[in-house]
């Protein structure tokens, strides 16, 4: 049974994604780390769908759709930011800082 | 340890190694390529978990479409490699520490097994997990009767029809939003 090991691998991948979001300053790399976290969650869904039925795999479908929509809109936002500040460094986004 | 488990741990090690490299590379292009490698290894794990259709979709949609979008934007922005700023070691330490804490909490789930959850779920002593959770066996029968795609399509277009239709509205909104955001002058 691969259920327990799959959950462990997905936990490690999710934690690596969280570390990337916390550590990196490049907005695009932070975005890729969010995709990595979504992938880890997909692995959890698929692993549990072996025990609890097809609902998990259908949920992976919806997660992938939301991820694709999020990637399109997020990258458009990053492009707009780049046009504004000429960089994608998250340090340069301090407009709302008092 | 049988062959399936050995292959599983090969794919798992590959996934974790490429995820680590994706997070630590300074160049965004190599980051993106290591992320593609992670997604391929996850597709291999999906096949081992009997989710062949999801594995195909993972390669087509994630490793294909989404990552090409990322690479296009990276090339469009013409980013140069930013030198590492070692004054930020506090950030690195805090980020790594927090995520190791989170990983330790989540890895505790590895003890999860159908038998254990069945014990907690039902009042009988040591029940059969196949009887407490019949959905898994039903799904396996559906795969045998209608194939991988058919077993997935039937609940998707019956029980989950309305969420499926709402997804199309979400995609339409995303398309309009992306065009509005990235066009200079409407």
How would you explain this protein's 3D organization?
The complex is a heterodimer of chains A (98) and B (186). Chain A has 98 residues and is mainly α. Chain A has one domain (3-90): Helix Hairpins (Orthogonal Bundle). Helix content of chain A is 80%, strand content 0%. Chain A contains three helices and no strands. With 186 residues, chain B is an all-alpha fold. Chain B folds into two domains: 1-82, Four Helix Bundle (Hemerythrin (Met), subunit A); 133-186, no CATH class. Helix content of chain B is 78%, strand content 0%. Chain B starts with a helix and ends with a helix. The model of chain B has no long low-confidence stretch (mean pLDDT 85). At the A-B interface, α1, α2 and α3 of A face α1, α2, α3, α4 and α7 of B.
The helix/strand class of chain B is mainly alpha
By CATH, the superfamily of the largest domain in chain B comes out as NADH-ubiquinone/plastoquinone oxidoreductase chain 6, subunit NuoJ
Q: What percentage of residues of chain B falls in helices of 4 or more residues? A: over 70%
- How far apart the termini of chain B lie comes to 61 Å
Strand content of chain B is under 5%
The secondary-structure element order of chain A is: HHH
CATH architecture of chain A, please?
Orthogonal Bundle
Task: Calculate Rg of chain A over CA atoms.
Answer: 17 Å
Largest sheet of chain A: none
Q: Give the strand content of chain A.
A: under 5%
Give the CATH architecture of the largest domain in chain B.
Up-down Bundle
